[in-house]
């Protein structure tokens, strides 16, 4: 489904806008805003839990990519390296990585529990990739993840962050990137991996740095609490988060995680601002066997 930013923006409650000091509602359309549905009418994952998820993608350079497979209970996002933009198609790296990850999942035996690190490693081996990436899977009652760079995830329980990835960077604004060059970063050497027990009612948010550079952990928690209290669907919550991040990225009078880190790295003169970028948000609800969409 294709939406204009105005349509997505209308999904952000005014109370949320006022509380967070967002800019006025935008009156222009970005290059493209896309909500990409992912099929969720799949069998229940072993252990009585499954993922119900949707996504929202707001393009800037159009170098993000993502995938999801509900039956396998796995989602992932990737962000092509913008620093290569003048030499190669950076978007092709991210799309190739996510496409290869998806193909690994769909060709696996039914009922296979996906190991995010193994999946990311296999997808990278089949891709001439320079990209950040994160993959999160639900195996029975356990959430597992593998990430490289500054694409990340957060797991919420009761509206509070239970587990949150942290960006891997060589230095400010220079994240680790999977690379196929002889001296490049490999999954086996650099991926941050882990797991946490999952519970019905958990909310998992997976996104590229366009989300996490512009929205604080506290703001993410408040959005999740608001969305769950109002009964938002995963798609609605993904659209609200992406729309919020888009506006925050273009505000010139409020701090964001990006500007706070930039000030720490470059000095007190760095202004309060956001960081315009591609924004990919995947929201997954962990639900029980009796849940129907």
Automatic annotation (TrEMBL):
InterPro entries cross-referenced by the UniProt entry: PPM-type-like_dom_sf, PPM-type_phosphatase-like_dom, PPTC7
GO MF annotation list: metal ion binding; protein serine/threonine phosphatase activity
Cofactor: Mg(2+); Mn(2+)
Domain PPM-type phosphatase: 49-286
Coiled coil: none
The EC number(s) this enzyme carries: 3.1.3.16
Keywords for the protein's UniProt record, in alphabetical order: Hydrolase, Magnesium, Manganese, Metal-binding, Protein phosphatase
Keyword Iron-sulfur: no
PROSITE patterns named in the record: PPM_2
Class of the enzyme per the UniProt entry, highest EC level: hydrolase
Reaction(s) catalysed (UniProt annotation): O-phospho-L-seryl-[protein] + H2O = L-seryl-[protein] + phosphate; O-phospho-L-threonyl-[protein] + H2O = L-threonyl-[protein] + phosphate
Highest taxon listed in the record's lineage: Eukaryota
Family, similarity comment: Belongs to the PP2C family.
Name under which the protein is recorded: Protein phosphatase
């Amino acid at each position: 489904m294709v939406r204009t930013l105005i349509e997505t923006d209308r999904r952000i409650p005014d109370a949320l806008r006022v509380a967070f000091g967002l800019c006025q509602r935008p009156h222009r359309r970005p290059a493209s805003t896309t909500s990409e549905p992912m099929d969720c009418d799949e069998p229940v994952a072993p252990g009585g839990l499954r993922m119900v998820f949707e996504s929202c993608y707001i393009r800037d350079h159009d170098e993000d990519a993502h995938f999801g497979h509900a039956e396998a209970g796995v989602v992932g996002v990737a962000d092509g390296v913008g620093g290569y933009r003048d030499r190669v198609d950076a978007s092709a790296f991210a799309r190739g990585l996510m496409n290869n990850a998806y193909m690994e999942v769909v060709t696996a035996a039914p009922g296979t529990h996906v190991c995010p690190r193994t999946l990311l490693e296999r997808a990278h081996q089949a891709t001439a990739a320079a990209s950040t990436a994160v993959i999160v899977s639900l195996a029975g009652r356990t959430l597992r993840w593998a990430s490289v760079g500054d694409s990340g995830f957060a797991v919420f329980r009761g509206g509070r962050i239970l587990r949150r990835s942290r960006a891997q960077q060589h230095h400010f604004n220079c994240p680790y990137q999977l690379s196929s060059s002889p001296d490049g970063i490999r999954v086996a050497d650099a991926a941050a991996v882990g797991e946490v027990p999952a519970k019905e009612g958990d909310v998992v948010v997976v996104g590229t740095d366009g989300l996490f550079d512009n929205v604080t952990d506290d703001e993410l928690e408040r959005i999740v609490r608001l969305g769950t209290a109002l009964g938002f669907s995963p798609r609605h919550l993904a659209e609200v988060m992406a729309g919020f991040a888009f506006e925050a990225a273009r505000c010139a009078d409020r701090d964001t995680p990006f500007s706070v880190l930039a000030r720490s790295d470059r000095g007190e003169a760095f202004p309060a601002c956001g960081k315009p970028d591609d924004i990919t948000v995947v929201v997954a609800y962990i639900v029980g066997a009796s849940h129907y969409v």
